[in-house]
Amino acid sequence: MGIFKLRKNKKFSYTPRHFDDKGEGNPFEIKHKFDDFRKTVNNTGLKTKINNALDDLKTNPDKTANRRILIIVCILILVFLFIIDFDLAIFFPKK
Question: What is the pTM of this model?
Answer without folding.
Answer: 0.37
